[in-house]
TrEMBL record:
Organism of derivation: Candidatus Sulfurimonas baltica
Alphabetic keyword roster: Membrane, Transmembrane, Transmembrane helix
InterPro entries: PDZ, PDZ_sf
Domain PDZ: 197-266
Transmembrane portions of the chain: 12-34
Pfam families associated with the record: PDZ_2
Record's keyword annotation contains Transmembrane helix: yes
Lineage: superkingdom: Bacteria
Record's protein name: PDZ domain-containing protein
Length: 271
């Protein structure tokens, strides 16, 4: 019995040894044919971009904002303003004739412009007895004949000696700031009421003015009807307030009033 057990163990060990020898031989053969250098694993990187949510609606709105906020040079800001011109002379009727015009910066460099011709972007539409009508971008502007050195004439028409006023008067920014901070003081010195043509406002009439106030020194009188300011017709309180809000950006204010059924122009320089 013991001999049979021993022979079985010997048989198993013999088979195991044979397998080890075969495996070793195969490994030597494989090592013989493989290259001596090592093999590196080439791992392909899989790049995953960062997730970002794209809202096309916001993109469109952003483009619109950039377009709106982009500074645009308007024609009025880049070109010559009507207040920068001087009307030195005119000849003709409403639909024919010519004017002599120049820039205030170069008053001696005059040009003769006929009705229908253009000067610095403004087209001469018609000629009045003491003014010229020019048009730009669909808007009409009135340029009055330059005041001559005479005691009996004004920018617009002949008036009495007591109605003559200087072509320019000075207004200080301190005075403007004082009235802006104390509007009640302003209404103590001057009172105005709207003048209507039917339902539409055509101007503002001065009903009271303190003779010792700054308004009186500026040439305004009781019964004057203010119809324009800087070539803007005062058809509403908003028109007047818009000019007042931007007054700190202005150097000159031109006011057109009706006095004794005649249009007169008051020019104020803001210092």
């Amino acid at each position: 019995m013991k001999k049979i057990y021993n022979s079985t163990i010997i048989s198993i060990l013999t088979k195991v040894l044979i397998l080890l020898v075969v495996a070793k031989a195969l490994s030597l053969v494989v090592l013989w044919y493989l290259p001596s250098e090592g093999v590196e694993l080439n791992v392909k990187e899989n790049y995953q971009p960062k997730y970002q949510r794209v809202d096309f609606k916001n993109m469109i709105q952003q483009v619109k904002k950039e377009i709106i906020n982009k500074p645009v040079n308007s024609v009025e800001s880049v070109g010559t303003n009507i207040t920068d011109m001087i009307l030195s002379g005119l000849y003709g009727t409403k639909s024919s004739g010519f004017i002599i015009i120049a820039l205030k910066a170069k008053p001696k460099n005059t040009e003769i412009i006929a009705v229908g011709e253009k000067y610095n972007g403004y087209i001469l539409k018609s000629i009045a007895p003491m003014s010229a009508i020019l048009q730009k971008n669909g808007k009409e502007y009135v340029l009055y004949l330059e005041k001559q050195e005479s005691k009996t004439t004004s920018h617009i028409t002949k008036v009495q000696t007591d109605d003559v006023f200087d072509s320019k008067r000075e207004v200080t920014r301190e005075d403007i700031a004082t009235y802006a901070k104390n509007p009640k003081e302003m209404w103590k010195d001057i009172s105005i009421v709207e003048v209507k043509d039917g339902k539409n406002i055509k101007g503002f009439k001065v009903t009271k003015i303190n003779e010792k106030s700054k308004f009186a020194k500026l040439g305004l009188k009781v019964s004057d009807v203010i119809i324009k300011a800087n070539n803007v017709k005062l058809n509403s309180y908003k028109d007047a307030l818009d000019i007042y809000k931007n007054i700190d950006k202005l150097d000159t204010i031109q006011i057109v009033v009706i006095r004794n059924n005649q249009e007169m122009e008051l020019v104020y320089e803001i210092n």
